[in-house]
Amino acid sequence: MSDTRRRVKVYTLNEDRQWDDRGTGHVSSTFVERLRGISLLVRAESDGSLLLESKISPNTAYQKQQDTLIVWSEADNYDLALSFQEKAGCDEIWERICQVQGRDPALDITQDPIDESEEERFEEIPETSHLVELPPCEQGRLEEIADLVTSVLSSPIRREKLALALMTEGYIKKLLGLFRVCEEVDNREGLHHLYEIVRGVLFLNKAALFEVMFSDDCIMDVVGCLEYDPALVQPKRHREFLTKTAKFKEVIPITDSELRQKIHQTYRVQYIQDIILPTPSVFEENFLSTLTSFIFFNKVEIVSMLQEDEKFLTEVFAQLTDDATEDSKRRELVNFVKEFCAFSQTLQPQNRDAFFKTLANLGILPALEIVMGMDDLQVRAAATDIFSYLVEFSPSMVREFVMQEPQQTDDDVLLINVVIKQMICDSDPELGGAVQLMGLLRTLIDPENMLASTNKTEKTEFLSFFYKYCMHVLTAPLLANTAHDKNSKDLQEGSTKVNPVCPDNFQTAQLLALILELLTFCVEHHTYHIKTYIMNKDLLRRVLVLMNSKHTFLALCALRFMRRIIGLKDEYYNRYIIKGNLFEPVINALLDNGTRYNLLNSAIIELFEFIKVEDIKSLIAHIVDNFYKALESIEYVQTFKGLKGRYEQEKDRQSQRLNRYRRDARSLDEDEELWFNDDDDDDDGEAVEKRMGDDFSDSYGKYMEAKKGAANGANGANNNGKAAALPPASPAVTPNNSSASSVKTVPLPATPVVKTALVGLVDYPDDEDEEEDDEEEDQSPRKRPRLSS
């Protein structure tokens, strides 16, 4: 397998008519019992797995292109290609294919697939007529030649025969010589016929013809023929553009003449395909597949040749990072690197990996820091495209570079901060560049693509770095446009009243919407870091200022940010919202929206519906206590009545729970003692009149003894029966310290009956389990009589 002659890359043509790399391996031709014939086998050089197993069918048309390519179609719309490292290996396999099919290896194509009717029709053609007879190449016969070329395009067999005739007689060069004569004498009719002829020859889709037509001495004449489209009143000046307008810029002189020729050829052929030739119709889509392949493999060859030239790339990056380099020169260097990266997309994955690692070693990221800070818009746009290639290739590589940068006193010099600054300062009214950069930032801060190694965790290190050095840069426009009125008395009391958003223009609103989208992503994926940042900066209050914006899409972005926070059902966030009274701007926006049934209305109602359905008790209590009077008039949805209902249910449950402790202690019977036994930690977390300790189960006997003693002491002290209103275990009547040591209690309020129904409405995280136990209590048959008495 070490024979480099048989080393190949396997390609398949996808639906977009682009070649997809399937891997690199070594090809062989051998008899395969299962396929019952000689087959081409390619085994991967990495692990020996089978990349390709293709039987050499007698009826399959194989083409040899550019001396190192073999292309064929196995089924409808399934094209394959083998790209050989060496010409000798390609020749060996080609001879084997021709041997199996009984063809002459000197030809560059074996045959074309034909349908049954065509097969029968051409069986009648004598063997001697294997070539199409071409008319003499004269001005007077151009119309006849054009008719012949256009007539064969519908028949694969006749296309093949015409291609052979054109090759064997050197007919292409004769036609191009005739073009020069017609142009000298301004023979427009002849030139129009030549346009049809050359266009038809291109549609023959034969690589061997392309090699002749796109050679240095022929390609400009081919372009000249294509200028004289009969549908145009005046011919296009494509040659003038290619020779005078389009300038080949060598940022660093290229000494390899073969590489220079390949670059020129690729540019001109790409121009023919993209600019000169009309968009192919549905019936012509496959006519130029070989032309696409020709360009594709040329680009692969160019990238490979440049990458192998170490001196060239070293010089490029040396000048790119040199402070003495002029701006115009640096602009050309950046455009070269951008085009170089674009060409690299044609490489197979392992070669593309090596390509980007080479760029990283040469200093592409430090260079981007310099050029992305330049004032030239074109340079910044090109640098952004290069940065997107790098982030797409390896976000971890970019993150590693950023964290290894020397910590400057000015954080603005960090690469990510340069990217953020460019996003914020995008001058495009539609913020096209900012949207692209925001997507790249999201990729960089996405924990899903962060690797966790044995010695360190990339997620923890990078996020800590990002929130310490970069987050303040990202949020600066948001904080600047939602400035508080520092002198407002209301603000000191926790109000959310702030100055209007300023400036509230469309471009600023778009930018703030992008920043909010990124922050919302952080809330979803960066739990700890973003929570700390929001709490420290009081960020949600500032974001909710944007609910006042005249741009509804921005108000929706602010609402979405709050919705993501509430969706986490994190009690720390809930307490922060309650303490800051942060529902006020949302409810104000709902009321200001009036009866309009729009997206803002639906989004706000969905927020409250979520709180109701998920039964977030602390938020429900806060909303009903503070805002229900303003919301009770909204009856076109049942959301707010539902919130009130949830609130009342919780209120009733708390009252019923409180009543258990207010019952006459003398009425304790066996069932009630069993109830205490079953629900030994039911009252944990309740600020009613006592708090039971974690060691309750170990001191159960002592607790019951103290409980009964407390009841007897209460009866002896107050003979008029009012002691029944006191809880059974009130610390005011605890007989001794021994029982107090085993039962943790809180001081009894001076007026224990006042507002008892409102106590405990705020639900703390450690209450969830006990509330589930309470729901089970309410459904227990033996407890129902106690709850209803």
Automatic annotation (TrEMBL):
Residues 5-101 form the PP4R3 EVH1-like domain. Transmembrane segments: none annotated. GO terms for molecular function: protein phosphatase activator activity. Residues 673-686, 764-778 have a biased composition (Acidic residues). GO terms for biological process: DNA damage response. Regulatory subunit of serine/threonine-protein phosphatase 4. This is Serine/threonine-protein phosphatase 4 regulatory subunit 3. It comes from Neolamprologus brichardi (Fairy cichlid).
